Amino acid sequence: MPRLIDISPRVSERIAVWPGDVPYRRVVGTSFGPGGNLELSSVVTTLHLGAHADAPSHTAPDGAPIDEVPLDAYFGPCQVIGVEVARGARIRPEDLTAPVEAPRVLLKTGTFPDPEAWGSDFASLSPELVDALAGRGVVLVGIDTPSVDPFDDGALESHRALRRHGMANLEGLVLAHVAPGRYTLIALPLPLAGADASPVRAALAV
Q1: Which pLDDT tens digit goes with each residue over 70-110?
Q2: Number of neighbours of residue 200 by Cβ within 10 angstroms
């Protein structure tokens, strides 16, 4: 039986979301007590919450929504690779500390250490890195920061590079406790009709 390593942040009202986006809120409608025999609750939140998968429709009006994205990329052999870059930097191919050896690559930057404390100076991908990974047959790239693009990049260059290559992405992963190396990734998005993203419960099987 494989051992699973959880790489998703805990979701609560304290989790940080992109400034101006919809914060997570859970509302209990029915609870145990006089006349109650179960608990029912609902949530209001951005879909770009914690560990999540972007859909092509997130950055392109003609892009597919998350319920139309094939699941294959989100399950299978992956590699966690450490990177050594300054806060706020775009990761370039030469910043990778190991050769790419798997079709799914998760980048461990350490530049967004606390999912409950927002910081805008996180590391992100460079379009050159996306091109290089695509050239190595990578079908998914994940990162331990809120976005594959810098906070202030309105052009969304790396999102667009991913879409150009038909690559999936994961954002908001927690990798501080994960050693670089080979694993099996499990991070399936929900089939939310017409949606631009979906939270995932991301885990690595050892």
Answers
A1: 999 999 999 999 999 999 999 999 999 999 999 999 999 99
A2: 24
Residue 74 has φ and ψ, to the nearest 5°, of -90, 5
Q: Report helix, strand or coil for 97.
A: coil
Fold entry, domain 4-9+47-205: Glucose Oxidase; domain 1 (3.50.30)
Q: In terms of DSSP bridges, do strands 140-143 and 168-171 run parallel, antiparallel, or are they unpaired?
A: parallel
DSSP 166-191: T-EEEES---TT--SEEEEEE-PPP-
Q: Are 91 and 126 in contact (CB under 8 A)?
A: yes
E strands within the chain?
Answer: 4-6, 25-30, 40-44, 52-54, 75-82, 90-91, 104-108, 124-125, 140-143, 168-171, 181-186, 197-199, 203-205
pTM: 0.95
Residue 58 annotated as catalytic: yes
Q: Please, which pLDDT band fits residue 2 given cuts at 50, 70 and 90?
A: confident
Percent of the chain with pLDDT over 70: 100
SS3 90: strand
User: 48, 58, 165, 177: which is the annotated catalytic residue?
Assistant: 58
Residues near 61 by beta carbon (within 8 Å), at least 6 away in sequence: none
Distance separating alpha carbons of residues 171 and 54, to the nearest angstrom: 8
105-119 confidence digits (pLDDT tens): 999 999 999 999 999
